Amino acid sequence: MRYLQYDTLMRMGMGHFDSWAATFGETVTAIELSPEGTGYRAKTRFARFFNLPELISIFKEAADIQTSDMLNLPVPEA
Asked: How many CA atoms lie within 13 Å of 26's alpha carbon, on the beta-carbon side?
């Protein structure tokens, strides 16, 4: 989003990832097995997104969404 919508994000006060993440996502930290298998580590991930109508609206300003109907793609018979 930042690459294509820098001005929009700045106008909305989301010029940095942290402000965008605080507006649209929730993170959780969980303990998981390390890749080496020798111990554990804390890993933080996005748990869920919220304010989805606003996020989708911003995304659609830059996205070129095409459905198979719009593209007249051949569909195999079942």
From this structure: 7
Pairing of strands 25-33, 40-49: antiparallel
* pTM strictly above 0.70: no
Handedness of CA 25, 7, 10, 51 (dihedral sign): negative
Nearest to 49 by CA among 35, 64, 39, 59: 59
DSSP structure class, residue 37: S
pLDDT digits (tens, 9 = 90+) for 26-59: 999 999 999 888 999 999 999 999 999 999 999 9
The amino acid at residue 9 is L
Q: Which residues pair with 36 in a beta bridge?
A: none
Q: Which phi-psi region, left, alpha or beta, contains residue 4 (left: φ > 0; alpha: ψ -120 to 50)? A: alpha
